[in-house]
Amino acid sequence: MKSVIYLATQNQHKIDEIKDLLGDLFDFRTVFELGLQTEIPETGSTLQENSMQKAEFIARHFGGISCLADDSGLEVDALGGAPGVYSARYAGESKSDAANVAKLLQELATTANRNARFVTVLTLHHQGQFYVFEGEIHGQITEEPRGSNGFGYDPVFMPEGKDLTFAEISMAEKNQLAHRARALQKFKKFVDESRIFQQD
Ligand code: ITT
Fold first, then answer.
1. Cross-strand partners of 137
2. Using a 6 Å cutoff on CB, does residue 90 contact ligand 1?
3. Who is most buried in 28, 124, 177, 183, counting CB within 10 A?
4. Cα 152 to middle of ligand 1, angstroms
5. Which atom of ligand 1 is the closest one to the Cα of 166?
6. Above 80 in pLDDT, residue 141?
């Protein structure tokens, strides 16, 4: 039987990517199914702090469950690592993908150095313990948005070695190489090796 893990995220795109990659192996459920009405807090100053905070919040609210949180960000070299931990709210509290992308392109309008990386920090909370997994991918910020797949900064992020943005490739292709997928592969390897879910 598949182990039940609640995804401590309210971002449907993350849920889709996680299920697409590992949904055959785990019974992923959402906080929407738990009836969570409030926004999961994320007040830390690093991706890891936020990731652990989200996992702890859900674990504390709904005792006795295993949950997996995701905090991710885009770090742009020419902007000193911004928007980073503030990626979701870069252009304001509305968390608008279009506004965030527009602000990023504006900030880089006269900048030749387009190097950037996406980072994901996953936190598994299981039986009172935290387990953290990180994944990253390097790439370039394009001059203009391209493509309509994905979410967030996908239309302006071109991973190293590709001529297409994340928004111009399918979710399955993104899941072969992206930051979240890399962190999820580490999570899967750890679960396989530690067998923590088989002790339930
Ligand atoms: P939860 O906190 O509920 O998980 P969120 O959207 O607020 O959802 P984050 O705090 O991790 O998630 O925000 C990260 C932001 O970074 C997200 O809103 C996107 O704008 C961007 N982002 C994260 N992963 C991305 C990806 O794979 N592709 C494109 N943009 C991404």
1. 118
2. no
3. 183
4. 6
5. 28
6. yes
Q: Which fold has domain 3-199?
A: Maf protein (3.90.950)
Radius of gyration of the chain (CA): 17
> Locate tokens 């993908």: which residue?
97
Between the alpha carbon of residue 110 and those of residues 83, 84, 105, 114, 143, the distances in Å are 17, 20, 9, 10, 10
| For the CA of 70, the nearest atom of ligand 1 | 4
Q: Enter the pTM of the model.
A: 0.97
**Token digits for 66?**
């295993």
pLDDT tens for each residue of 97-138: 999 999 999 999 999 999 999 999 999 999 999 999 999 999
At residue 198, what is the residue type? Q
Residue 200 clears pLDDT 60, i.e. is over it: no
Yes or no: say if 162 and 137 are a contact pair by the CB < 8 Å rule: no
pLDDT at 199: 62
- Among residues 99, 104, 54, 47, the alpha carbon closest in space to that of 79 is found at 104
- Domain boundaries, given as residue ranges, for the chain: 3-199
Instruction: State how far the alpha carbon of 89 is from the alpha carbons of 75, 97, 98, in Å.
Output: 14, 9, 11
Query: Measured from the CB, is residue 10 less than 6 Å from ligand 1?
Result: yes
